[in-house]
Amino acid sequence: MSDLDLSAVSAWMAENVEGYRGPLSATKFEVGQSNPTFRLNAGSGSYVLRRKPEGALLKSAHAVDREFRVQKALWATDVPVPRVLALCEDESVIGSMFYVMEHVSGRNIAEPSMTDLVPGERAEIAREMARVLAAIHDVDLDAAGLSDYGPPGHYYARQLKRWAGQYEASETEHLPQMDRLIARLGEEMPEDDGTRTLVHGDYRIDNLLFEQEGTSCRAVLDWELSTLGHPFADLAAVIMQWQMPPGAEGRGLAGLDRDALGLPSDDAFIEMYCEARGIARPERFGYYVAFSFFRMGAILQGVKRRALDGNASNPESGLRLGAYVPRFAEMGLAWLDS
Question: For residue 291, what pLDDT band results from cuts at 50, 70 and 90?
Fold first, then answer.
């Protein structure tokens, strides 16, 4: 079952997706809190549809048109992405903007602990994560047609202003620790070093698809938050995620014996990434991790607000995730102190 108007989608695909033929059925993916995503099964094969949520949305959020554009641009690069097929900007078709892409079969790994794998596989997948992240940051923006994909200027100054605004717009209760984190991120911000690359914006293991029987990445998913900016934002986001507790909610590595599991330390992963790009290790890395905690806290606050307003993709999960916001603020402050 799904909440899609399948007759409308089928009619639109018949006109806009080459080779499409029905009948069409759909199943909603349960994962994800941002843009509702559906597996489409048709006579012509399998597809994936991503749409904006219905209801009142924060300005510039849920940008499925940007997802479509960047994946189309990356199709001919070293970054593995699904092939996008068509974008529908006419909200009258199903009630919101959406796009359709090819379905990529692969192995989705929900948590960085990779509990179902053996140590050797875990090590190879971690190395592949570093390699693919380096490939994203090494994309030739001019050749890919993405040189205007984000505004110029200091990335962290821009992002702090944006996410502080998003947080305030979705605030449901006053959190003094989040106020302190926002203030300190502004006061302690590094100077702009002029580095400008494509950034994914939500790079983590559950947004990647791997081979069913191997460790190569087949696709990087969920490009909604992508822009042009500073590459250490993506790198720090990986390290930030690993500080969380393991399990379905935290999806981190805190407290685990990484050596025994075949998982790299934070420093080892940073070294893999820097080696793949041929760059020096970043200085003041604690700031970048602190910023990642702040931004994820702002994102989860938005998830909580949508759950309370009744237009979240998964309201129950949204409320559980929103409960992490105070902890993210506290951990961000701790990384600034480190």
Answer: very high
The residues spanned by each domain of the chain are 6-102, 107-337
The DSSP annotation for 246-283 comes to SSTTT-S-TT--HHHHTPPPHHHHHHHHHHHHT-PPPS
Q: Is CATH 3.30.1490.20 the classification given to domain 107-337?
A: no
- Report the C-alpha gap between 306 and 46 in whole angstroms: 30
Instruction: Please tell me the number of Cα atoms within 13 Å of 305 on its side-chain side.
Output: 19
What's the CATH class of domain 6-102?
Answer: alpha beta
Q: Facing residues of 40 across strands?
A: 26, 47
What is the residue whose two structure tokens read 């597996």? 39
Class of residue 100 by CB neighbours under 10 A (exposed 0-12, middle 13-18, buried 19+): buried
Is the CB of residue 48 less than 8 Å from the CB of residue 108? no
> Two tokens at 210?
């791997």
Instruction: Give me the residues paired with residue 198 across strands.
Output: 228
**Which pTM was predicted?**
0.88
Choose among 198, 204, 203: nearest CA to 230: 198
